[in-house]
Design brief:
The complex is a heterodimer of chains A (about 350) and B (about 325). With about 350 residues, chain A is an all-alpha fold. Chain A is about 75% helix and about 0% strand. A two-stranded antiparallel sheet of chain A has the order 1-4. Chain A has a two-stranded antiparallel ribbon with strand order 2-3. In chain B, the strands form two sheets. Chain B has a two-stranded antiparallel sheet. The chains are: A mainly alpha (about 350), B mainly alpha (about 325).
């Protein structure tokens, strides 16, 4: 990173970092109110659906939503980790725009390798290798060459999307295998395999990010890179890791996506905005307004339940995007007011 | 801070610095040369005209808008919505039989409304530009789907509306096509505003040192509002040109500009030592993307490979520029 970007990132994070430490009781109550407010909004909307949407509370429907959220959830975790490690500055902070296109490429690789007659293990390894390779490209660009993450991952997004189109010729590549069959129809304790994937992945992530030294260091690197370096943390290593990890998440999500549709399909790049929305919306559930695993999971489920509830209420699906956008704005606006006047500057 | 001074720099170092600063220019010239040799049609007047009118004008105007926003330290993900809103309102008004001037005016106002919404969200509600414009992008997509029963395009090829479209897109003054004239006007205005005016200095200050800009007494909210409204207006102009060129309104088509415009603007930042967006840099970025797209098509690469090619090329330009500059420090 150049001296100027370091300085800019430093001052920005310094301002937001200062908040929790010097805040008085009133502000702390305000932040708590936002957190509770966001959760309360979430609960109120669920309550509304439960009362008025037929079949919303049936276990079949609830599991269905969790299943549908699994893909978005895994991707959003990858994005959240990148934002944690890179800081949440708009133009200079960590971001991985290539994550959705990477998922599409991994799905294409996975389905193509399966179609070529190789077993699940080979296909899975190929998909993960592909995801991590794309992640490595991002990491080299961001850490090795010092390119802005927004810009580097934009170029990589084009490469991944183009590679997917070249590989599949923009067609649907069907895939069937024991692993996919298990993911679709397997179940344990009445909960389907896809839902288990999200539950287990969330649990692992929760421990990894919030209960390990590594996770703590990641927050330090993202929050204040200079301080982290002074404290002896290998900053480039940690930042580079986040991009490899988001590539890994893309690969895992691609396997889930292929299992849901029994094929790799073009157009997965469109998920990017939802992934960004989920990862960024998740920050309002945290005390310091940084991305957390729990917050990300909540917002992923929230987005899933919102789409599902609208479907059950027979509201045109054209409304879903708009309401999702309006809710993001509402929640974030309330949050920034609670942050207090200084923090907004 | 260990930027080597010119007096102490060796020839190789100086060359490195030169390449780091002008990698876009060098790449652009090299690519033009390559395509000129590889394809006999590349350097023909008809092809260059085609590149200019179809690939450069609209993207360049959107990218100019983003250049202002990114200069101010923000980002606008809703440029596509502004493009689409202007296009939608314009085409719908023409379809309803209103006059062309009225249609253009109200269309531009629709785009400005998007900018005003962004400005309110960012300056009044204190939402970060990224999230605010992301929210507006979602809302804009829904609005278009609801207004067109799920995304039905509106085609007005012939008749009254067709004439109005032709008056915008198919006319020329002194041999220069009207869209190109519009682009030139936009370039001049944005250049003067951003690089030669008090407003421009305020925008640059906000982008370079937001805290300092605030403490020096700049009216940051007002300037920010102007930035987002100006960007939306420019996108609206693109929307009008777009619908006049294709004689239709296709919902959600504006989004195609977003990533290319961001790419062009940031490629342009490699021209400046402080990595600041500039009008000249942005235009170079747009030209680079447009020429590569056109050239790859001419030498027979299909659309899929074009995307890979552009991604790799952008990556390499950035890698050379950022990498060399880092190596010097």
């Amino acid at each position: 990173m150049t001296a100027t970007t370091m300085k800019a990132a430093g001052t920005d994070t310094a301002q937001s970092e200062k908040q929790p430490r010097v805040q008085n009781t009133g502000k702390r109550l305000g932040a708590a109110a936002v957190r509770l407010g966001a959760i309360a909004t979430f609960a109120l909307i669920l309550l509304y659906f439960a009362l008025f949407a037929p079949g919303f509370l049936s276990s079949f429907n609830l599991i269905n939503v969790v299943e549908q959220s699994a893909i978005l959830g895994v991707l959003a975790f990858g994005m959240a980790v990148v934002i944690i490690g890179g800081g949440s500055n708009v133009t200079e902070g960590g971001i991985d725009l290539s994550i959705a296109a990477n998922m599409g490429l991994c799905a294409a690789v996975f389905a193509t390798v399966l179609q070529a007659g190789y077993p699940d293990a080979v296909a899975l390894l190929a998909a993960i290798a592909c995801g991590i390779a794309v992640g490595t490209l991002n990491a080299v660009a961001v850490v090795g060459l010092g390119i802005l993450p927004l810009l580097a991952s934009l170029a990589v997004m084009n490469i991944a999307a183009g590679a997917e189109l070249t590989l599949t010729q923009n067609t649907v590549v069907g895939a069937a295998s024991p692993l996919l069959a298990f993911l679709v129809s397997g179940s344990f304790l009445g909960i389907s395999a896809l839902a288990w994937c999200l539950i287990l992945f969330s649990a692992i992530m929760l421990v990894f990010i919030h209960k390990t030294t590594f996770g703590l260091r990641l927050y330090a690197v993202g929050g204040h890179p200079e301080a982290a370096r002074a404290a002896g943390i290998n900053v480039p290593l940690h930042v580079g890791f986040t991009y490899l990890f988001s590539g890994f998440c893309a690969a895992i999500a691609s396997v889930l996506a292929v299992s849901r549709l029994s094929a790799s399909t073009p157009g997965s790049g469109e998920m990017l905005l939802s992934v960004l929305a989920a990862a960024l919306l998740g920050t309002v559930f945290s005390r310091r307004l940084v991305p957390t695993i729990g917050g990300t999971l909540l917002s992923v489920l929230f987005i899933g339940f919102l789409a599902n509830g609208f479907q059950l209420l027979n509201v045109s699906s054209y409304w879903v995007n708009g309401v999702q956008g309006a809710l993001i704005l509402l929640v974030v606006a309330v949050t920034s007011f609670a942050r207090g006047p200084e923090a907004s500057r | 801070m260990s930027v080597s001074h010119d007096t102490g720099a060796s020839g190789a170092q100086r060359l490195g610095g030169f390449i780091a600063s002008y990698s876009v220019v060098i790449t652009f010239l090299a690519i033009c040369l390559f395509f000129a040799v590889a394809s006999p049609t590349f350097l023909t007047g008809a092809n260059l005209y085609n590149v200019l009118v179809n690939n450069v004008v609209m993207l360049a105007i959107v990218a100019l808008g983003l250049t202002i926003v990114i200069s101010s330290g923000g980002i606008d993900l809703s440029v596509g919505v502004s493009v689409d809103m202007a296009s939608m309102v314009f085409v719908m008004l023409l379809a309803a039989g209103y006059g062309g001037v009225f249609g253009v005016t109200v269309g531009l106002l629709a785009a400005v409304a998007v900018g005003v919404l962004n400005a309110i969200l960012i300056t009044r509600l204190k939402i970060s530009p990224f999230l605010a414009t992301l929210g507006v992008l979602f809302i804009g997509q829904s609005t278009q789907q609801l207004a067109t029963s799920g995304g039905q395009p509106i085609y007005l090829i012939t008749g009254y509306a067709g004439d109005q479209f032709n008056a915008i897109a198919r006319t020329a003054l002194l041999g220069v096509p009207t869209p190109v004239l519009v682009l030139i006007a936009c370039i001049v205005v944005v250049y003067l505003l951003l690089h030669r005016s008090v407003f421009g200095r305020a925008v640059q200050a906000m982008g370079a040192q937001p805290g300092v800009a605030w403490y020096s007494g700049l009216a940051v909210p007002r300037q920010q509002s102007l930035v987002y409204i100006g960007c939306a207006l420019l996108c609206g102009i693109t929307g009008i040109l777009l619908s006049a060129t294709v004689k239709s309104y296709v919902p959600l088509s504006g989004n195609a500009f977003l990533l290319d415009a961001i790419g062009a603007t940031f490629i342009g930042t490699t021209l400046s030592a402080e990595r600041r967006p500039t009008v000249v840099g942005t235009l170079l970025g747009v030209l680079l993307l447009a020429v590569v797209k056109n050239g790859l098509l001419l030498i027979g690469w299909n659309f899929y490979w074009q995307q890979v090619g552009i991604g790799v090329l952008v990556f390499l330009v950035l890698a050379v520029s950022f990498g060399l500059r880092r190596a010097r420090q």
